[in-house]
Amino acid sequence: MKRAKFHFLLYGALFLLFAACGGGKQSDVLPTALAPTITTQPFSQTVSLGQTATFYVRATGDGALSYQWKKNGSPISGARFTAYTTPPTTSGDSGAVFSVAITDASDRNVTSTSASLTLKDAVGRSQHFVDPVNGTDAGDGSASRPWRSLQDVVARQIETQTWEGSLPFVEGKKLVPVNSGAPVKAGDTVWLRTGDYGALAIQSAYNVAPITLAAEPGSVPRFSKVVVDSAQNWILRGLSVSPSYSANYSTNTIVTVENHSWRGPVSDIVIDEFEIFSVPNESVWTTAADWDTKAASAVNTSGARVLVRNCRIRNIDFGISMSGKDSRVEYNTIDGFCGDGLRGLGDDEVFEYNLVKNRRFVNDNHPDGFQSWSTGPGGVGTGVVKNITLRGNTFIAYENATIPFAGTLQGIGCFDGTYDGWIVENNIVITDHWHGISFYGASNTRIVNNTVLDLNAATQGTPWVAVTAHKNGTPSRNCVIRNNLTTTLNVSADASNAIVVDHNLVIPSNPVGYFVNASLRNLRLAPGSPAIDQGSATQAPLLDADQVPRPKGSAIDVGAYENVP
Fold first, then answer.
1. What is the pTM of this model?
2. Which distant-in-sequence residues (6+ apart) come within 8 Å of 218 by Cβ?
3. What is the DSSP secondary-structure string of 418-485?
4. Which segments of 281-323 are extended strands (E)?
5. To which H or E segment does residue 10 belong?
6. For 176, 278, 347, 429, which has the most beta carbons within 10 A of its beta carbon?
7. Where are the alpha helices (DSSP H) in 232-349?
8. What's the whole-number mean pLDDT along residues 78-91?
């Protein structure tokens, strides 16, 4: 549903109000430092030989936290994030133990509990094949005799579980076996060969360990739609999904992972390396009305622990919307959209290293690169969205003003709080709208080392980093705004609300000497940039937007990138 948020005239009034407020009081008073605390421990995994396993941790603490995952007590090279995915497992990984050491800016640390990796014996059944062109209903799923219909495999050939008794689902029900003795079992992989598979629905299928449905190397399995609801432990990898593959084109959401009110909840789903688009080439949409009425939204998920990563998404309405707890969106590209690029509506979500670009101005919606809002008993804006991390994402309104229907884009727009415990770091926002990074009603939130640049000084407003009161008048509280490189800074800060504003740098209207090449959207710092060594290491992210380590215990650079000589 399109969601208009502000009228143009209201933006102008807010701009004048923020200008009167100024950039906020500079203060060295910091919130009380706390030692790292693990809020979600890693949990043990069971996968089949050759599959990967992903371990997660969630922690809070003083400023930026660093992570070092260990296998059997030894550090794993490069495993320095909140999640760690193993390489394809080998027999030597059976029984391995994984943990993570977490260190804060003051070198205090805590180590997680250990999580074990169990390998399920494949016994020759772990590999199955589906071929919609050369397969047959009489096949046995082997490489030489593949099955023909994946939907039939999901319905009849997979040993899984569902809720006992009749529907609807209610809390307290037990899971009971489905298709006992079927050839595909928990931990197995079903390889998909090139061809058209139609719409895929995975429903009422709870696996005790992940089952992987993946494109066979070199193959392009094509789907018109994918729906996963009332299910658990599924990995879907390498699918090409578009309503244009169907004779009956639809603008319904292309990929859905849904908690179903009748059939039951969904959790532990991976959507990996998908290609998702409404139409393969936008040139068939010659009018704004084509975009407005024919673009489908890409991904909408509402389950817990859903991971969407490495997807290539184009020519769509809304991009990726997440509302489930402990979910992640990472390393995706969204290129060409007319709604919001990303939406984060669930607690404990992480959005990392996504690229969102080339918004199309085709209706009266005010789209955001990233948007969030809370929902409570009183409706929108009356609840709290907790502990979302936005790290290393890039938002570009448009790369070239000559693309069809190029239009303004609000960068990171959080207008209907409250937003509690957020981390917003190392993001790059290039837009021609006032809202570069905006929080209306934030608490215990850190906005550090972001870069916000005006794309077009001739239209709309100069984009800002802004933290102000909730729309109901409640002040934002206990926030840190530091080391941001931005064209405008507007923060409602004073001693009463404990908002710290320091080491931010305002970019002049002509940023010559600041960036490697701003006209080509390369905002890495140029040699001699005024942003070099002007930041504070206190609560700064330990890696920059390129995942380059920042110097510890000394002056660091302002903005998302650390200069590398």
1. 0.83
2. none
3. -EES-EEES-EEEESSSEEEEEESEES-EEES-EEEES-TTSS---EEEEE--TTSPPPBS-EEES-E
4. 299-301, 304-309, 312-316, 320-322
5. helix 8-21
6. 429
7. 288-294
8. 82
The amino acid at residue 315 is N
Peptide bond preceding 333: is omega within 30 degrees of 0, i.e. cis? no
| Tokens 């948020």 found at | 5
Paired residues of 70 in beta bridges: 75, 99
- Per the CB < 8 A criterion, the answer to whether 60 and 37 are in contact is yes
Q: What is the DSSP secondary-structure string of 467-506?
A: EE--TTSPPPBS-EEES-EESEEEE---TTTT-EEES-EE
| Residue 17 pLDDT | 34
Q: Which two tokens mark 49? A: 């030989």
Indicate if the pLDDT at residue 68 is higher than 80.
Answer: yes
* pLDDT for 399: 92
End-to-end CA distance of the chain: 47
Name the one residue in this structure whose structure tokens are 């990138």. Answer: 561
- For residues 471 and 441, the answer to whether their CB atoms sit within 8 Å is yes
Rounded Cα distance, 357 and 349, in Å: 21
| 89/50 Cα distance (integer angstroms) | 5
Q: How confident is the model at residue 27 (pLDDT cuts 50, 70, 90)?
A: very low
Yes or no: domain 37-118 corresponds to CATH 2.60.40.10: yes
CB atoms within 10 A of CB 363: 18
Q: Which two tokens stand for residue 450?
A: 């972001």
Instruction: Name the CA radius of gyration of the chain, rounded.
Output: 24
Helix (H, G, I), strand (E, B) or coil at 102: strand
CA angle 160–157–190, rounded 5-degree value: 90
Which single residue is written with the structure tokens 């027999």?
91
For 513, list phi and psi in degrees, rounded to 5: 90, -5
Q: What is the mean pLDDT of the chain?
A: 89
- Average pLDDT on 376-395 reads 96
> Which helix (H) or strand (E) element contains residue 415?
strand 410-416
Return phi, psi of residue 219, to 5°.
Answer: -100, 155
